Amino acid sequence: MAKTGKDYFGLSRVLSIILAIIPVTALICGFITRLTEGKIVAALLRILLGWNIIWIVDLVMMIVNGRIWRLLNV
Question: Are 19 and 12 contacting, i.e. CB atoms less than 8 angstroms apart?
Answer without folding.
Answer: no
